[in-house]
Amino acid sequence: MDRQVRFSGFGGQGVILMGIVLARAAALYDRPVGEDGKVRRKTAIQTQSYGPSARGGHSKCDVKVSDEEMLYPFVEIPDYLVIMSQQAYAKYINERKPDTKVLIDPDLVFDRPKGDIYQIPATKAAETQIGTRIVANVVMLGAFRELSDMVSQESLEKALLESVPKPTHELNKSALRLGSKLAREAVENRSKN
């Protein structure tokens, strides 16, 4: 089963890192056991693009994860669309199916689309609860993992810690946990409305 993800925002938010960590977690560490008792191996493909300016321009990272070999590397219509800026919203919101799950950072994305939407205040929560907005991408990644369950928490954390400097490991683990909590709160808020 193929699952397609698009992470989007502006340069400097760590959007590319989100995709790299997810693809690494899926391809290298996530080994679910099938109904037949055999360990399953996943395949992942990650592609990225960004605007002409490194910081402030648009940034996109696509990831495809499958239980089988993939012949086409590009995400066409994502199953999950993570949007961390208004600019990315304008560029990518129409590239989705009716059942695409959309995660937005409501403090940076001002429009509210219709559909399967989850508001994850990653930037504000990183700043107020962790003390720095630099890990907002990791907060959003933790929320995405909680909502998608594409990879295990353990494999995502292992891939993340291999991708960031060692002195930031505790900070990043806290950000992942905060993202999971925000996702559970978003689901709870949707069920109340």
Textual characterization of the structure:
The chain is α/β, with parallel strands linked by helices and 193 residues long. The protein has one domain (3-192): 3-Layer(aba) Sandwich (Pyruvate-ferredoxin Oxidoreductase, domain 3). 41% of the residues lie in helices and 19% in strands. It is built from six helices and six strands, in the order βαβββαββαααα. It has helices spanning 15-29, 86-92, 122-130, 136-148, 153-163, 169-192, and strands at residues 3-10, 43-50, 58-66, 80-83, 101-104, 116-119. It has a six-stranded mixed sheet with strand order 2-3-1-4-5-6, with helices on both faces. α3 (122-130) crosses α6 (169-192) and α4 packs across α6. The protein is globular and about 45 Å long. The N and C termini lie far apart (32 Å).
